[in-house]
Amino acid sequence: MAAEHRTRRISSPTNEPAWVRWTLILVGLLFMALFLVLPLVAVFSEALRQGIGTYIQSLQSPDALSAIRLTLLVAAIAVPLNVVFGICASWAIAKFEFKGKAFLITLIDLPFSVSPVISGLVYVLLFGAGSVLGPWLKSYGIEILFAVPGIVLATIFVTFPFVARELIPLMQDQGTGDEEAALSLGASGWQTFWRVTLPNIKWGLLYGVLLCNARAMGEFGAVAVVSGKIRGQTTTMPLQVEMFYNEYQGTAAFALASLLALLALVTLVLKSALEWRFGEELAATGRGH
User: For the chain, where are the alpha helices, taking DSSP H only?
Assistant: First the structure.
């Protein structure tokens, strides 16, 4: 009996009374309801207040369609480039030892510590009318600011850590044993990457891509600085939501915002599914301990 009692005490994670645990749970649920559920309910209720017909008509307006197309285009360019960068950076950091590794990791984390507005201003300084690069590129007909290239550059900057930061700890945990075994059996570098490294990191890579895409489609600060907010040309979905709202087009603003909210919900569901699948794979391979 004494051994059984000790087992129960050891297996219990806390010794707090039940009322403390339930209080913490209720506080957590209250915060989720107040700061997550209620705003989502408000967005969808305002978007559908005048009926589904008005909702669909708002999304089919030229400005809304242009914002949706531009957002998808920017994400389609920025995310694959960040995937390439993330894989290369994580491969170099996790598999090799070289001078400046700590500095490279710091640079990767830089967008997390810099305001997106500041990053947008940096591009204005680099490619603006008073810079060296801006007039030179413009003489060749290349527009960076207030055009799609500037939006893409700003989006890449604020999103490039996501893939790398997911893959670096994963690759470090896996080590180099699998790659060394493949190379010793005669596999080339590319064969090792495609048949060994990539399958080992596939779930972490998908997780990073998911977060990167969500941030790319929802970015506001950096894009607002470099885009110029030219209606129908350089307004992404977040910028167009602000424009609609400032022009007292509430239904159109909330309709477009509901698409971003749906993106957030889908991202949350996929994120949970990937975390579950990734955790299962780690447990199966014995790497979760």
Answer: 2-11, 18-32, 38-47, 52-59, 62-95, 101-113, 116-127, 133-139, 148-159, 161-174, 177-184, 189-192, 198-218, 221-227, 237-246, 250-285
Q: What is the per-residue burial (b if ≥16 Cβ within 10 Å, else e) of 3-14?
A: eeeeeeeeeeee
Task: Report which DSSP code applies to 34.
Answer: I
- 3-state secondary structure (DSSP) of residue 45: helix
Burial 103-123 (b: 16+ CB within 10 A, else e): eeeeebeebeeeebeebbebb
Distance between CA atoms of residues 151 and 135, nearest Å: 18
The C-alpha atoms of residue 197 and residue 178 are separated, in whole angstroms, by 8
Query: What H or E segment, with its residue span, contains residue 132?
Result: none
Report d(CA 158, CA 218) in Å as an integer.
Answer: 11
Average pLDDT score, the chain: 84
72: its two tokens: 């998808």
Distance between CA 284 and CA 289 in Å, rounded?
A: 11
Question: Model confidence over 145-175: pLDDT tens digits?
Answer: 889 999 999 999 999 899 998 898 888 887 7
Interior angle at CA 241, CA 240 and CA 244, nearest 5: 85
Is 71 within 8 Å of 239 (Cβ atoms)? no
pLDDT tens digit sequence for 97-152: 888 888 888 888 888 888 889 988 999 998 888 888 888 888 888 888 889 999 99
